[in-house]
Design brief:
The protein has 251 residues and is an alpha+beta fold. Helices cover 41% and strands 23% of the residues.
Length: 251
């Protein structure tokens, strides 16, 4: 931990958990969570939260941790990982600046259901569980906001369950590549993943082995559906991947 708990966004703080010197916590670019609070509760929050810095690959929250505080990301990126068996993990997604995590444990007081790891140097604010409950009782907009967030995550997990249940490894890979990609600048018919995701991470996204992912990626490249550059993976015919997924679901 570092510095006093009363540091608002952007104010100077002290030393991080690993002894790394911190001059300031970056200002949040956009945090819908904070917009749900009136001035009184926003000031109470700023006087109670604790800024923490995590280095790349450091565990932010561990599976089954009993602590039930809430976290708000100020800068950086964390990966959400579900452990499904000994030695097996599935990547549920990534979270970035302005997003919350830890709300399930904060709401029901049960151990964490997933682990979160910093992908890059990441600054967060830890919000005490008790204060979170008080804000929920007094701020209806916050309660509605969290309901919407939980609804969106439930829908996403429902889609992931369907994907794991009805699609084989090949088509789970197609679906994940499409989900992680964005339209390629200057070519609306293609999509791009930049920076390129490594095969072991893709394997954890879809619940498969790295070897199986490597075989399928090589097949996509051989068939002209995937191009690799130094800084990106390019899906040259994303519509073809979508059609293949749809055809599989109709069988």
């Amino acid at each position: 931990m570092f510095g006093p708990n009363s540091c608002p966004i952007g104010q100077s703080v002290g030393v991080g958990p690993n002894g790394d010197k911190m001059n300031s916590i970056p200002r949040l670019p956009h945090a819908p969570f904070l917009e749900c609070l009136d001035e009184y509760w926003l000031e109470r929050l700023k006087s109670a939260w604790t800024p923490i810095r995590f280095q790349s690959q450091e565990t932010v929250v561990d599976f089954d941790d009993s602590r039930a505080d809430l976290y708000l990301i100020a800068a950086g990126q964390v990966r959400v990982i579900l452990r499904v068996a000994v030695g097996k993990e599935i990547i549920l997604g990534e979270l970035g600046p302005g997003q919350l995590f830890g709300e399930l444990a904060a709401l029901d007081g049960k151990p964490r259901s997933a682990s979160l790891t910093a992908l890059v140097q990441t600054d967060v604010y830890r919000i005490p569980e008790q204060l979170f409950h008080e804000m929920l009782d007094e701020q209806p907009r916050l309660a509605r906001f969290l309901l919407v967030c939980l609804s969106e995550r439930t829908r996403d997990l429902t889609r992931r369950i369907a994907e794991l249940s009805f699609l084989d490894t090949r088509h789970r890979l197609y679906n994940t590549l499409l989900r992680l990609s964005r339209q390629r600048p200057g070519n609306e018919d293609q999509r791009v993943i930049s920076p390129p995701i490594i095969h072991s991470d893709l394997a954890e996204h879809i619940g498969a082995s790295r070897e199986a992912v490597s075989r399928e990626m090589s097949r996509l490249a051989k068939n002209g559906l995937l191009e690799r550059t130094r800084g990106a993976l390019i899906l040259t015919q994303p519509d073809e991947l979508s059609r293949s997924i749809s055809a599989t679901l109709q069988l």
